[in-house]
Amino acid sequence: MRTFSRLGWLSAGYRGMRDGALLGLAELDQIGSPARYTYRVNGMALTVRRWTTDRLIVDEVVKRIPFPQLRAGDTVLDLGAHIGSFSILAARAGARVLAFEPEPSNFSLLEENVRPYPAVEAVPLAVAGASGTRMMRRQVRCSTSGWSFLESRGDSQRADCISLSEILEHWRLAHVDLLKLNVEGAEYEIMRASPIAVLRKARRIFLEFHDYHGQDSSEIARKLEGAGYRVMTRPEMLYRLTGIGYIDAIRSDEG
Hints:
Layout: H1 7-27, E1 36-41, E2 44-49, H2 54-64, E3 75-79, H3 85-92, E4 96-100, H4 104-114, E5 120-123, E6 126-128, E7 132-138, E8 147-148, E9 156-163, H5 164-170, E10 178-181, H6 186-193, H7 196-199, E11 204-210, H8 217-226, E12 229-235, H9 239-242, E13 244-251
Parallel strand pairs: 3-4, 3-10, 4-5, 6-9, 10-11
Antiparallel strand pairs: 1-2, 7-8, 7-9, 11-13, 12-13
Helix pairs in contact: 6-8
């Protein structure tokens, strides 16, 4: 997989135009609604913010991203939970979910949206290669998402971080059925820093990768293959514009 060092601004520009057009269409039927309203989709009800990308992200998670099917009793780590779309999908399938979201306004909505689902525990932390306090910046195209450690410009705020190893130790997790990551570029440092023994506690790993700012998803794929996973890489149709795609990895001993 090729990585594009110039893709930061190009990806932001393309996705900004795309999201702006989609957002305008999505908000047409909400004229006169309050600043926050309940968006209902596929039997789910989530509070979203008007004139933000919240609703677009919910639709993407619920309708378009090819997440693995979950089973009742599964344990799921949702790293980069935003306002709770995937956490709710997992809880409705009968899974126990630990949902990590560092951005305070997103976390407030995450807590509100998952309140009807006691199997979801919301955690106000970023997941990174190591614990500590880090500066994150919001990508210029984004309104409520896109908070990243890799950006050099944009709105900024500090975030408390925890590593994957520390999550497993703190919550005493001997295994995880699905490790889901959408962490705006932090997936690379998380994968680099996590020992193979830690990664192998996850039966399946599904992540969104962001191949810009010099990052390369093939590095993640190679490490997971070396850890004994069967890896499928799925670039977005417009990968050459966005640098975005998905890695779906399942442990080889899972059949």
